[in-house]
Fold:
Amino acid sequence: MYDKVAGDRPQYTKPKDQKDADHVGQSQKSPSDSQRETVDDPVPIKQQSIKIPQLKTASEVKGGYGLPKVAPTTTTTKAAADAQKTDADAHTVPAIVLPDRVANNGKTGQDAPIKIWSPPKKLQDDADSESAVLHWKKPKEWFPVDKKSLIPLPTGSPKPIPSVQFKFKEETVAAKKTRETRLAKVKAEAQLAWSGYKQFAWTHDELTPVTKSAKDPFCGWAATLVDSLDTLYIMGLKDEFDDAVKAVKEIDFTTTVKNDIPIFETIIRYLGGLVGAYDVTGGPEGKYGVLLDKALELADVLMSVFDTPNRMPILYYNWQPDANVSPKRAGTSVSVAEIGSMGMEFTRLAQITGEDKFYDAIARITDALEELQNREGATALPGIFPQQLDASGCNRSAAAVALLAKSKAAQLQIEDADDLSDEPQGYVGSGNRSKAKSAGAKDLEFEVKPGSRAGEPGSGQFNSLEEGGSAAEGRADDATGTGSEVQKRDVWSSDNSPLGADGLPADWKCVPQGLTSGSYGYDSYSMGGSQDSAYEYFPKQFALLGGLEPKYRTMHEKTVAAVKKYLLFRPMAENDPDILFSAKATSSDNTDQNLNYEFEITHLSCFLGGMFGLGGKLFDSPEDVEIGKKLADGCVWAYESMPTGIMPEFGMAIPCAKADDCHWNKTSWYETLDPQVEWRKTQLEEYHVKKAEWKKEVERLKDQEKRRLAVEDAARREKTEKVSNKREGEKGEDSTPAAENKPVSDPNIPEDPNKIVKDSEQHHHTRRALSEEDDDSKKVEAKVKKLESELDLNADSGYKDRGISSIDDQKPISEVVYPTEPTKPLSHEEYVAQRLKNERIYPGFASLNDRRYILR
Structure:
C-alpha cells in the first residue's frame, strides 16, 4: 500500500526495459534476436471521435437503434485500407509476440465419429410425457410499475466518445503469416473442444472431459452451447453455428430440473449469449430471428424476479407455479456482483425491442447503487460498495424498535383491564395468563385474530409505515432471496389470513430503506469475486448508451478513485517488475481508519486492467490507462511465475511499502513466509539449554552405574576369595589367593566400558548364586549396601521433579531409564525451506491458497 503519511503515490512511467514477450509461459532459452519480429516504438496516440450507432429519438420507430444491416465481413475497401495505413504510419506500438503452441499435438479430433448424446430410455419416456413436465406460468404481479412510471431509455444523439482501439501500422507479410497461423491453431482448438461437447454433452450445460459425461450446474439449458454462439460465428464455424441455433430453438425456458433459477448466471450466460449472437449475425436484417425470440422467452421468465416492493431482484428464483402465489422480497445478504451485473443484457434487449420495461428493471438497480455510493457514511471506502448488501428494502432495526414500542403499549392496555372478558378481542393479558392458559389460549404478547382487518385491534397491522415495522418484517430475508420463509407461513397461504386493502398480507409493510450493508460487524471491499463485474459494467453501460446517461461515468470515476486510494499495491517480486494488483480491505467499524488488508492475487480481479484501460480511454484519463497496463501485466506475471504457465485461482502477494521504491528482498520474503522468526529463535535457544542438561544427566547416570558395577565387582571378588580359601582349608591345603582375586579396597571403573551391560547382568546372577550357596553371603551383602550408602547411590539426586528416575541397585544397566532427548525445533531457515518444498511456493507469492485453474 501507499504510505499515507509520506503521501507516496506510484509514478506511472513506462519501464525502460521490458521482458521479452517470448518468455511468456516458457522456461527454456528465448529465441535469438534474429528470430524475433522487429517492431517500431510506439508514438503518442491522439484521442479521436468514433461513430456510435444512432439511438432512437422520441419521434423514431422503436427497435432500430442503428444496428448493422448485415453481418460484418473481413472485406476492406481501398479507402479504408489507405486510412488504416495512414493511421499506422503515425501510431506504432510494441507487438506482443506469444509463443506458438499446439495443444494435443495438433490433433483436432475432427476425424473422430460424432456421437450425439441421448438420454436413457426412461428419461426420454418421461420427457415425452407432457404430464411429467412442470412449466412456469406467469404469476400474479404484486408490485406492478405503472407504464407511465417506467424509466425510459435515454433518447437523442449519442455523445462523442473517444476511440478505444489502438491504431496499428500496416501489417507486414511476415506478421500476417504469423497471425493467420495462430488464428488457425486457435480455430482448430475451438473445433476440438466443440466436437467433444457435441459428442458427450450435447444440449447440456457443461462437458466433463475426463469422464466424458455431461453435467448441468445451471439450469440444463445448454449453457456452453448458448454462451458459445457468438464465438462460433466470429470464428467462421458456420456449420457448427447452424447446428447450435437449431438446438437453441428446442430449449424450453419455462421448465428446468432445478428448483431455483440462479439469476446472475442465467442473465450473463443465456440472455447475454442470445442477445450477443443476435447482434453479430445482423440483428433484424439477419436470418437468425429465433435467437431474439428465445431471448424474449427467457426474459419474460426473468422479469418476475423484479416483482418486489423496492423492485430489487430475487437472485434465486423458485419458478414453480405453487411457489409463485405469495409476495416476495429481495434478500438481506446479496453480493454486489450479482445484483449489479444485469445492466448490459437488459439494456441491449430494450434497445433492440424498444420495450422500456427491460431498461426500467435495471435502471432502478443503478439508481439504488448510485444512492448508496453517494450516501455519506454508507460505506467505509467511499466509492466502493460492501461485498454483501441488504436489498430487502426493510429497515430491520427501526422495525424492531417500533414493534417493541407497540407491543409495550398493547401490554399496558391489557394489564389495565379488570378481567379477561374486558380485554380487546384476540389479546391475552399477562395479568390473567393463568386463566388464559387454563382456557387453552396461546401464551403470546398479542396474536392476530383470523379475519381481522388491517388497522383494527388484534390485526397486528400498524396504520402507517412511519409508525413502525411489522411482526412479519424481514420474513423473506433469507440468504437466497427466494422468499422461501414467506411461502412457509400459513398466514399467507390460508384462506383465513388477514389481508389489507391492497390484497397484501396485513403484516407485510415495514420501514423502508435503500441498499445497505448486508454484513454483521465486518464489511469487505475488493475488486475480486462477488464484486467484480458490477464495477466493470459502469463504463460499458456508458458506451452502450452512447454517453446519454452520465451517471455511469460518475459512478465509474468514483470507483477508480477509491481503488487507487485504498486498494492498489505493487508486489515485491524477483527482477522488480513494474506491476500492480488490487487488495482486499476489511473494515470492522465502517470507517477507513482501521482497515485489515489481504494482498490477494486472484483470477477474478484480472478484469480490472481492462476496466481501467476502457474507462481511461472513454473519459480521457491517461493515468488510468497506464494503471490498466500495470494491472494487466500483473496477471501476466502471475502466469509467467508458474511452472505450468497458468496462474492459480487465488494466492497472496507481498506488498512493497513504497510503490515507487520497490526491490526484491529475499530476507523479507522469508519473513513473510514465516512470521514467527523471533519465536523460533527463542525455541532454539531453549532447546540448546535443555540439550545440555540432558547430556549432563545422561553422563551422570552412566557414571553412577559404572560406580555401582565397580562396587559389586569388588564385593564379588572378595567373596569368591573367601569361599575359595574356606574350601582349600577344609582340604588341608595351603591356599594362596591368585593375584587377580585380591580384594579391591578402592573401587575402580572397568577398563572396557562396552562390557558394562554384560558384566552387570553376570554380577547379579553370581551374587544370587553365592548368596544361596553360602550363609556368609549375608555379610557380603551387608558390606555391599554399606559401600553403596557411602557412595550415595540410592539417594535422591534431585531429578525426580524432572521426571528422571533414580537408579535401582537391583537393576542391571540395561534397565536404567534415561531421560528422553529433547526434539530439535525447526530454525527459521529450515521452516521456510520445508514450506517452499511442500507447498511449492514461488518467489513473489506469500501463499498459494487455491491452485486450481477453472477456465477463467
Notes: The first helix runs from residue 78 to 90. The longest strand covers residues 845-850. The mean pLDDT is 75.
